[in-house]
Amino acid sequence: MIELRQVAKAYGARPVVDGLSLAVAPGERLVLMGASGSGKSTTLRMINRLVEPDAGAILFEGRDVRSYRAEDLRRRMGYAIQSTGLFPHWTVARNVATVPRLLRWPRARIDDRVDELLQLLGLDPPLFRDRYPHQLSGGQLQRVGVARALAADPAVLLMDEPFGALDPLTRHGLQRELLRIHHASGKTIVLVTHDVDEALFLATRVVLLDAGRVLQDGTPAQLLGAPASAAVRAFVGGTELGLRLLGLRTVGERLRPGAAASGAPLAADLSLRAALGVFLERATDRLPVVDARGQALGTLHLEDLFERDGR
Amino acid sequence: MTPAAPPAVAREAGAQGAAPAVNAVLFALLAAALAAALVLPFLTVAPNRIVSGTGIGLGALPGPAPLLLLVPGAVLLLAALQGRSRALKLSAFVAAAFALAGLVSIAAEGAREQSATLPSAGRVSFGAGFWVLALLAWLAAVDALQGLRWGPLRRTLALGGLLLPVVALLALGRLDHLALLKEYANRRDVFEAACARHVEIVLATLLPALLCGVPLGVRAVRQPRFGDALFALLNVVQTIPSVALFGLLLAPLAWLGGVLPGWEIRGIGLLPAVIALTLYSLLPVVQGTVSGLRQVPGAVVEAAGAMGLTRGQRFWQVEAPLALPVLLSALRVTVVQLIGLAVVAALIGAGGLGAIVFQGLLGSTLDLVLLGVLPVVALAMAADAGLGMLAAALARPDA
Fold first, then answer.
1. All residues at 6 or more sequence positions from A99 whose CB lies less than 8 Å from its CB, including other chains
2. What is the crossing angle of helices A107-120 and A138-150, to 10°?
3. Chain A interface mutation, best of B295, B302, B307, B315, highest count of A Cβ atoms under 10 Å
4. Alpha-carbon span B329 to A9, nearest angstrom
5. What is the DSSP letter of B204?
6. Whether complex ipTM tops 0.95
């Protein structure tokens, strides 16, 4: 879908992206992670030509991005940023309709699409359609921002720390919605973040960058389970590495059959990290597990949280 | 843009708690009005238009009319004592309007009676007392309007309505015995031509000022180095006194007129006036454009680009509408400044109301000066109110 070949960019004498090669497969949720100044945002912005590389090539659907007119390329890639960049003088509906209008969709189709997207992002269309950005909360603004990015049904969604400015609860809610939208649409997502937990939660693949180079490229489990260097280990885990590994697994993966515990049950799709919290809170070593409909599935034992060979 | 009203909660608390019940401002205005009514001459009477006349106090005017002013005075006193009452604020506004209309019609009536005893060259003019009282009535009305906290449109209409009785008296010919109107009657054609010319000068200046100033401002934002040079130049222009600038233009334009005989270019007249006034107007227009564009959030412009808006679409659909309110308020200042400055243009033969003002100054005829100045003030106020309402109408719906 997207391929970067030996891409380099320097601001003055300081290289920001340094010979980066990367291929993004269709349907992937690729997270570019790194500290400030690691080149992750610049890399993202080179994909839709907000920044032009000094060297190397970027391919979109097999063609060099420079062979597209920049506007045409951008209209085929959704773009959402932390500050949302919503147009303050336009209503929510007009904001969402930005790209479809540029593509000269018929009016009725645009109206339908706007309502569909507001619905998808959990914003009641009659209530939100005619509001202005300043009338919305931070979370609602970001929902509109994501809806605007999705409006023309682009194959690729580029997101630059889209949830960085939100409170933890809102942020987590929107992260879940992004996963839901991805499952429903199968879009390719390239997301930039410095937040390790966000990266681990959202990514099918994480690329950890430092000074414009790739430190490690792999699944969340690979980054946590087999960090390529001390630097990777320090970034992704530090003392929390074990907990984050637990965060990648669900209760359902480790449960034993049979009802050998009492008390309020855990949901099978809860992360083991959250389950550990419940164990500590209740000062117990066994907890009952139920499925989404409340049907008993078995028991989770505290000792089964330890990573063992073969599991 | 209009200043934002304080939040309702704070207003509520202020009305019930901290705000004093007595309206001190209105009280002071009333005290000043009483003093002005007792001490200052309301009208001045002179045997001809050149000599300075003798004053007649408000109390010395025959008839019961001056006493009628006590009615709005009493209403205003009540409103001053009960500063919190909204109904009394509205009454205060109406009372101030009545007072203003009353002052004008008392002056008109006084002028009619006095001029009966004068030779035909005699003049009855507004005295200092009239001006002070009229100003105080106006201020009382403005104070009441502020207390009512109306929107910009209603406020402007109300202030316009305040002048309505005066306009009506004028139209009915009730003011014809005043010196001001006698000067007008003597120069009706000149006056009307001067008004038209004044507006013409302002509009003829505004067009090139906008056509040059806005693109220059856009370029100054895009190329900061160009902007620095431009502002350095425009600031220098602004420091040249207007009379000097007219003089500086005299020679090159006269020369140009000699080189291009068919073009009717001369060192005096409309052209140099418009050029000089355009140069003065460029600074506020460029500044308004620059600060309007600079306050557009960078993330919004970038997002517009990332959505696939072309450079032109970005400018016209995003940057320009977001910069417009700031540009409009700069334009408001420019136009008001321009209407005043255009008076000086009469010095180089451009005509306009300045011609009447200077004629009055040279002949020491204050009423003639007034005849030139009052429409300038009225024009400036009307332009200010009109552009203010336009700005309010165009203001972002979220504001």
1. A75, A148, A151, A152, A154, B307, B308
2. 130
3. B307
4. 43
5. H
6. no
In 3D space, the residue among A36, A126, A117 whose CA is nearest the CA of residue A82 turns out to be: A36
- Residue A283 has phi, psi (to 5 degrees) of 50, 50
Q: What mean pLDDT do residues A66-79 have?
A: 93
DSSP A14-31: EEEEEEEEEEE-TT-EEE
- Weakest-pLDDT range from A36-40, A290-294, B395-399: B395-399
DSSP A284-306: -SEEEEE-TTS-EEEEEEGGGGS
What confidence tens digit (pLDDT) does each residue in B71-110 have?
899 999 988 888 788 888 889 999 999 999 999 989 988 8
Decide: helix, strand or coil at residue B331: helix
What the block records as the tokens of B354 is 């300045």
Backbone phi, psi, residue A161, to 5°: 40, 55
Of A143, A152, A194, the closest CA to residue A35 belongs to: A194
Contact residues, chain B, for A88 at CB < 8 Å: 297, 300, 322, 396, 398
Residues of chain A contacting B308 with CB distance shorter than 8 Å: 70-75, 99, 102
- Asked if residue A31 lies in contact with residue A203, where contact means CB atoms within 8 angstroms, the answer is yes
Residue in B with minimal Cα distance to A150: B307
Mean pLDDT of B193-217: 93
Chain A residues in contact with B396 (beta carbon < 8 A): 88-89, 132
Q: How many Å apart are CA B145 and CA B136, to the nearest integer?
A: 14
Residue type, position A171, single letter: R
pLDDT value, residue A311? 43
Cα B399 from Cα B391, distance rounded (Å) = 11
- The pLDDT-based confidence of B12 (bands split at 50, 70, 90) is very low
- Burial (CB count <10 Å: 0-12, 13-18, 19+), residue A258: exposed
Three-class SS state of B304: helix
- Write the single-letter amino acid at B37: A
Sign of CA dihedral A54, A56, A58, A63: positive
Q: Bigger pLDDT: B256 or A233?
A: A233
Beta bridge pairs of residue A256: A299
Helix (DSSP H) and strand (DSSP E) numbers for chain B? 17, 3
Q: How far apart are CA A226 and CA B315, in angstroms?
A: 50
d(CA A203, CA A222): 12
Residue of B nearest to A73 (CA): B308
Please report where in the chains the tokens 């600038």 appear, as a residue.
B245
Report yes or no: A8 and A39 within 8 Å, Cβ to Cβ. no
pLDDT above 70 for B342: yes
Nearest to B22 by CA among B78, B73, B93: B78
For residue B14, the model assigns a pLDDT of 43
Test mutation, A45, A87, A105, chain B, max B CBs within 10 A: A87
Instruction: Decide if B344 contacts B186 (C-beta within 8 A).
Output: no
Comparing CB atoms, the residue among B305, B309, B321 nearest residue A89 is B321
Of the listed ranges A284-288, B80-84, B192-196, B383-387, the least confidently predicted one is B80-84
For residue A12, give both structure tokens. 């003055």
Task: Give DSSP secondary structure letters for A48-99.
Answer: TTSS--SEEEEEETTEEGGGS-HHHHHHTEEEEETT----TTS-HHHHHTHH
- State the pairing for strand pair A2-11/A14-24: antiparallel
Residue A208 phi/psi, 5-degree rounding, is -90, 120
Band of pLDDT at residue B301, cut at 50, 70 and 90: very high
B221 near B290, Cβ under 8 Å? yes
